[in-house]
User: Fold this.
Amino acid sequence: MNLLDLAPDAVEATLAEVVSPAFRARQIEEWVQLRGVDSFDAMTNIPKETRAALAERFTLAQPEVLSRTEPAPDGSQKYLFKLADGNRIESVYMPMGDRTSICLSSQAGCAVGCTFCVTGFFGAGRNLTPAEILGQFFVIQREKQIPSEQMNVVFMGMGEPLLNYENLVTTLEVLYRQMAPRRITVSTSGIIPGIEELAKLERRPNLAISINAPDRKRREEIMPITAKYPLDELMAALRRFPLEKGRDITVEYVLLAGYNDSTQDAVALAKLIRGIHAKVNAIPFNEDANLPKWMKRPTDREIDRFVDTLVKNRVRVTVRRSKGRDIAAACGQLRGKEIAKSRATGGREMKSEG
Ligand code: SF4
Assistant:
């Protein structure tokens, strides 16, 4: 059993079989869940025999770093991890002044199939365990030596976090040990039952919702999940989502040239989100060889026109202009390159790293 898979309130009972007195269990819990160590030997205040007994029964395994991209001009860097079963996942490190965000994957693929997304292009993958999700976080935090008070976490990597709900909630509980819920954002394609479950939590992360089109027809074209969870029902679920003072729902909108980036689209988007405490994050599309050729990034002028129209319609908006663009930060692109390379070489590339 991996101790990083446990919710904080389950650690003490699980360790009771191996360690006593109870304060030892709490010390171990701190090493695992607060400091994220990946070896029992690192637990310097725990007796050697206890560490050996723990190592016999439990693991602290975290994903292995396969590669890192060169840092982009804005400092962001993408990590490609290998899991114990050979699956590959991605995470992104994004420094932003005195804050740092880490973008985590929640699944080793994605069944949702958004047509603008490389992870969706390569199809479904299994749910990640809490240890595999938290492992991405701890590996990067350790490597970059980021103090926890500077950290933000976003679930915007590979996968749909609300389709891995139980493991997501365990992960959140562990992360809350070192950061407030408002510093964590869960981004969803619009899984309404998952949004409703999140709404019931006592401590809720921020919610980001990937909208990408102002009407049902176009949203269904690029996000087939809309057929299952219609746009009007999704907007109603967002209106019901409880927000503490000062918090917003982030509306993500991937801008595709000539498709959803016109002035009329901006006006329609402003109308769609009226009444929701929301801010829009406009994300110019990241072109990729695996995605439909007609999907293009709008020019800076077109992006500005879209954004200005939103602002005129009293919508708060930010643009993710370059963060990670240089390192193929859109989810799944790095893994997609590796899969494509592997297919071209009959699988030898992937195996040679294993
Ligand atoms: S954008 Fe997110 S939900 Fe859609 S296919 Fe990609 S990983 Fe899945």
